[in-house]
Every structure is written in C-alpha cells, then in structure tokens.
Amino acid sequence: MSSKTKLLSELCHLDYDAVAAYEATLDRIEDDNLKVKIREFCNDHRDHIKSLNELLIQNGEEKVTGTDMKKILTKGKVVIADLMGDSAILKAMVANEKVTSEAYEKALEKDDLTPNERSVIEIHWQDEKRHKQWFEEMASAY
C-alpha cells in the first residue's frame, strides 16, 4: 500500500469512526431538533466513506469496511458525555469533528494526490469544518 492509499484508508476509517460517534449521539441526545442536523452530518460521513472507497478501488486497493481502534475514542467521548446531558454530548462532538477536520486538512498537504483525489478531500474537509462550526454553535447555545 502506497503512502497515498494508506492516507485514503486512514481517512475512511476515521469516517467510519465518525459514523459510530454520530450513531451514539443520536441514541443519546434528547433534543429532537438537534437530531435532524446530526442525522444529516452522519450521512455526510457515510458519503465520505463511499467516495474514499471509490478512490481506494481506483488505486487498486481493497475497500475499507469498518472502524478501527479510534472508534473507542470517538464513540467513547459521546458515551461518557451522555452522563452530563446534551451540552456535554455536543462538546464531545466538537472534539471529534476537530480531529476529523485536522486529518482532512493535513491530507491536503500530500503532493501525490490526483486533482480528483484532492477535490474529494477538499469537499470532505469543507463538510468537516461546517460540522465542527455547527456543533460549536450548538454547544455554546446550551
């Protein structure tokens, strides 16, 4: 596996981890109004998985099919935050989105990405920044 495909694979694992955290959030958050946007963001991560897997296949690699060990950290933050209510869950998701956003930003520093790969990663990074900003705003409002 090349360094580029390893990066794509790691991003895909990270998005699987994000889906697990979002699902944990949806199971725990009490405010139904928040759930609408959270479901939308969860679907963004599912779309990221699909497009990253397409890039992996185009590069002759196997698809990523699940989470890695980071799932324990991303989902765990939400599970622990549940003990303190919606505000804490939202803050846990800010931390998770910060990690994901930084990973996509760092991925854009790779020199060997094709224009299409760079475009996909850029779109995902914009999603992550939007997610993080929304969670920050919601956490501040609570």
Distance between the termini: 45 Å
Count the strands? 0
Shape: elongated
Query: Could you name the CATH class?
Result: Mainly Alpha
**Radius of gyration, rounded?**
15 Å
Task: Give the integer mean of the pLDDT values.
Answer: 90
Helix-strand pattern, N to C? HHHHH
Quote the beta fraction.
Answer: under 5%
Number of helices: 5
By CATH, the architecture is named Up-down Bundle
The chain-level structural class is mainly alpha
Structure at a glance:
With 142 residues, the chain is mainly alpha-helical. It is 80% helix and 0% strand.
Structure description:
The longest helix is centred in the N-terminal third of the chain and has 27 residues, at 32-58. This protein is mainly α. The chain has five helices and no strands. It has one domain (3-141): Ferritin, core subunit, four-helix bundle (Ferritin), CATH 1.20.1260. It is elongated and about 45 Å long.
List keywords for this structure.
142 residues; mainly alpha; single chain; Ferritin
Please describe the topology of this protein:
Blueprint: H1 3-28, H2 32-58, H3 70-81, H4 86-107, H5 115-141
Helix pairs in contact: 1-2, 1-3, 1-4, 2-5, 3-4, 4-5
